[in-house]
Write a structure and sequence with these properties.
The chain has 385 residues and is an alpha+beta fold. It has 16 helices and 9 strands. Strand 7 and strand 8 form a beta hairpin. Helix 3 packs across helix 6.
Amino acid sequence: MASFYQAKYCPVCKRNVSADKKDLCTKCGNKTNRTGWFAVFRINGVQKKLSGYKTKRLAEEAYYQYINDNSAKPVKKPSDMTVGELYEQYKHYVSLHNKTASIKSTDNSIRLHVLPMFENTPLKKLTVLEIEKWQEYIIEKGISYEYKSKIYKIFTAMMNYAVKHNYLEVNVVSRVGNFKNTDPKKEMLFWTEQEFITFYKSIDDINWRTFFSFLYFTGCRKGEALALNWNDINFTTNEVSITKSINRQGDINGAYEITTPKNKSSYRNVLMPTKLVSLMQDYFNYCKNYDGFSLDSFVFGINTPFSDRAIRENMIKYENIAGVKHIRVHDLRHSHASLLINKGQNILIVSQRLGHSDITQTLNTYSHLMPNTQKEIIEALNINI
């Protein structure tokens, strides 16, 4: 994309110069005169400059004419580009800057929920009214607020890209704003300490006993646990080093990729409690009997990480045997946080252990689990004066 600017001419310096906001030459300080508009861009790897246009519109027209006359990849004027054409360009940008999961999420959101209404709509035709109609269309689908909000954010990001590249002057999607949350508040599911103990005692397989215990006692995300190699377990310090995660490539053939953790704060060392250390040592000795075992083997799966399907099926199996309420695998992470908070642990330390990006995320998620300390506060204020 070209950069368009209006040059200034300094009568003292006798050349086009840069100027401050008062149109004063930044070199000598004299008043400058306005001259023509310029277009600077790269074509076939070479920088090109077009100059001498009275208006920005004429400079833009010249740029698009030059590109389409001299490049093997014609470029549409922003005023002619459709939402579908924008997405083809944006999709390439996303593929260069995001993880596979984010690329897939972006593609699904735009392809399934934006393009059906706007694929052939020129960008210049997108108005506040059209976006409001689109929101009504999404609401009628009856999907959750969380998913609607996700679609909105991805649509907004694409339109921000359009503004950044001068395809649009204003992002009308962000101007309209996100969907309103009208969903009833969902109760967070987690196990109490006793429920986990009951579940644990029902498991007769060392693989699943260790895996589910690991998630409960460390609070790690499932993807973080599945990406672990035995090199990441330090039995001297009793710490687990979290430096990577598993990203599933769908359910086909159990395909996956090793990627970075969710955010920078997710890189962390998690200290294991005594019971878990004992379980992990027994499990380590058990896994060493497998052919091909090495310290580079996956902790949970040896050659291939446990599949999502096997994890779900075995969790349901042992929930049924134990007679405890059904929760998701991810809810073991919530159970871990709940256990620590109810035992009076510092919320900042809990946040760091979970690998949250900041303590606000932890408070927003778990503040309702924190005990009411109003009486303790009042007692602290009752001083003798």
